[in-house]
Amino acid sequence: MVRSESDSRPSEARSRLLKTASQVFYAEGIHAIGVDRIVKEAQVTRATFYRHFPSKENLVVAYLNEADRALRGRAEAAVAAGLPAADTLRTLGASIAQDIRSPGFRGCAFLNAVAEYPDPQHPVHLAVLAHRQWLLDTVTELLATIREQPAERAARHFVMMRDGAMAAGCLFDPVLVCETFLHGVDGLLRAHAAHAQAEPTDI
Question: pTM score, two decimals?
Answer without folding.
Answer: 0.87
